[in-house]
Predict the 3D structure of the following.
Amino acid sequence: MSTAVVTVNKGVFSGFNLRQKTLLIIGFTSLLLLAIVISSVSFGEESLHTNFGSKNLNPSPEHPFGTDWMGRDMFIRTLEGLGSSILIGAFASTISTILAIVLGLLSSAGKIADSFISWLVDLFLSIPHLLLIILISIGFGGGATGVIIGVALTHWTGLTRVVRAEIKQLKTQEYIHISRNLGKSKWWIATKHILPHLIPQILLGTILMFPHAILHEASATFLGFGLSPHEPAIGIILSESMKYLSAGYWWLAFFPGLSLLIVVLAFDMIGENLGKLMDPKNAHE
Amino acid sequence: MLDNEKIAGFIGKKILRLISLLVIVCFVSFMLIQYSPIDPVRAYIGEMPVSAEHKAKLEEYWGVNTPPQEKFLNWAGDALKGNFGISLIYRIPVTDVIKERFTASLALMAASWLFSGILGFILGIVAGMKKGTWIDKAIKTYCYVLAATPTFWLALILLMVFSVYLGWFPIGLSVPIGVTAENVTFLDWFLRLILPALTLSLLGVAQIALFTREKLIEVLSSDYVLFAKARGEKGLDLVLRHGIRNVALPAITLQFLGFSELFGGTVLVEQVFSYPGIGQAAVAAGLRSDVPLLLGIVIVSACFVFFGNAIADLIYQFVDPRIKQQEASI
């Protein structure tokens, strides 16, 4: 019995090399992101002590990202900023996904519901995203809370549209027509024919929402709407660095931004690879 | 004939929709700001110490103590007449601020919209045609990295490289200090446009290129392309005949749908390069609670985005014959 399992596993291993590779990439990137979050949470206040004896230092082995105008280590500041960005991104994507699923499903309930949902989507999309986040964050009192709410409430539109369009498109498919003609119930068609197509889309949509949420939070913070200057955030770090650009302190902007880019890329990679795993059409490639 | 009628109906519907949208947008954003716990006067004054009387005067000037409903009706009534009030921070009518700022931004946005669209489409076609080769991989990597790049960071990097180190372009400020608006030469203005436009273009390429690539690959793996291949068509000819036709429309549509992203990018880029466009005004208005100006900008940006979406819809509904057919079958 056990030998049979082993041979099956062997077959799986050689047959799904790409699958394993993909899983490996997903594992590694997730680990990286997790490590960032955990380390940023575990750093205490004291790790960011000001030390005017070592201010504006170039990157060195001791301070890999250099130090800022108060002698704080930029590497630790960056890590802390990334950690909070990821957490905010996670919160915002979760809220937005829930909204998207509920609204997307609602839209297939009937004509009135559908036009209401699409009207709502249009309303949210009618103002440039960043401006909308600014508006909502002002409405909720600004600061960190304002921006988090702003980011959480504005990222559902894309996924809702995807869910809605997917349902609409699936409904016109011939096999759905045939299924209906065969007397299958609406519920049966929804769960057996439509839902299987939606789940990967929703999962992917959530993960791909992450980078957007993170970038929007950083942008709003950069513009001065988000977290207050003493809180760790990439946006704050970069907007501070603008004052020192002409002084030639390039590391203040370069490394934190690059780290943010890497985090966003990591999420994109996870999303992309998960998509590969879930799409049976491309499994043979 | 029928098509003309249809288009007229379409435009009519769109205009109605725009009006209803604007009413809601105005109302919602007005109320959002109105019920914000932020004290606008405090936000305006900042850290400066002021006496109580002075603050009271400012509050009166701001109209803090008028009830919100009355304020909204006053504002909406004036807005219908085309009067959006006086900007609190610039001390001139909001319409004037927006006119001046939006023109500046429009130049920036148009340049980067066109450039990123064309470049992105070409890159996407090349990558899709050469799927799996190193060119494809290079383009894909470039796009993925750019799609993940924070706009303001790229702007900062370009500013550092080209303005601080190479000194090719001025750092910040849209026009040289001490030069009046009439004396700004085209070159001065153009020099200041390059870096912001370049930033936006570089970033805008990613989405359109990836989309075009995906679409082209999808088309190339379809049955009719397989059939065309069986007939002996190949190479660029095949892509031009069967690929681009099917890919161009969705790509153009996508580019029009990108107006909102474009606007957002402009806000960030203008902030970094201190380009005196509408984005910079929006940020200033938001940070310093200049309610009339912020509302005015929200409305203008909503119209701008609506315009882009309407064009995309128009293409989607009237130009792509497949959509028509699908609708007929429902």
Observations:
- DSSP finds 14 helices and no strands in chain B.
- Chain B touches chain A through 53 residues (CB under 8 Å).
